[in-house]
Amino acid sequence: MIFLIPAIIILILFYRLYYKQRRPIAGGILITVLLALFLLGLCGYALMSPLSPVIWVILGIVALIFLMGPLLLLFSSIALMINGQRMVSREGTRLSNFLPLFLGLIMLAALILFYTLPFFMNVNPVIPLIYSMLAIVVLFFGFLFISFANASALYYFNKPSYNEDFILILGCRVIDGKVTPLLAKRLNRAIAFYEKQMEMTGKKAKFVVSGGKGMDESVSEALVMKDYLLSKGYHKSDILVEEHSRNTRENMLFSKAIIDRLKPNARGIFVTSSFHVLRASLYARDAELDFTGVPAKTAFYYFPNAFLREFIGVLSMNRQTYAIVFAALVLCTMVPQLVFLNMGLL
Questions:
Q1: Which of 2.60.40.350, 3.40.50.620, 2.30.30.100, 1.10.357.10 is the CATH number of 166-298?
Q2: Which residue in 48, 130, 193, 262 has the fewest CB atoms around it within 10 Å?
């Protein structure tokens, strides 16, 4: 019962923040907290009840969850290192392609330290401080990553209606003025939605292709996407071009300006790669563009790297808030230990 009231409050907050205010990250954080409360509730119920087959099952589930944590971290670190090697071999030696490899090594090192440092607690009084700092980093960023994953999973339950006025397609890098496989998946997903809407409701939507010209590109991403749609038989009057944006934020802002000139408060969707939908939805909300994101499939080997970059991107959007919370956790944990250490109690 003690966990029931907080759970109800969290569900009410989740409904308000996620469904009413369209704040997916807040929704992901609340789901993570709710899962933690559920786990604590199971533990409390098992400890306060007489032993029975049901209680043994609950204890087994809880024990399995706690055992799965370190094992999942170990397998994840190995998988990330393997994925990093594949990314480098397939996509080249750009620094961003090494991200899974670096993160896998960091996770493996953190796991080793987490389980070996307790054996050396009495060797040096500084070691407990190092262990506490390591625990804060792992728990804080682990909590945020799980929340981000929950928010991403929740977003897949947002199903747009087939009554949209516009289909906004977010661009990505083009090579030699040609559509890349990643961009082709976005375009084909947008085409599939257009055709499905025509089949179900008969409503004809307009495409909005958004993307400027990068430093290493000979032509804007928007014009390349327009040519692709024209080659598929769509008329140029049904394709709106936004070719000045340099990032996702500008994709949303500049596209909204074009859309509002034609039809204020229009209905629509935006299409981007599956790993990018959540962060793009945050920029859409900031631009006051009330469009639902529709994900295009991503190559399996590419997804971990891209997902990690999106996680870092989301953190950077609210870096001041996260930095303040992290600093508060460090102060609340480390200051008492430093005081005890100075008093000779550690």
A1: 3.40.50.620
A2: 48
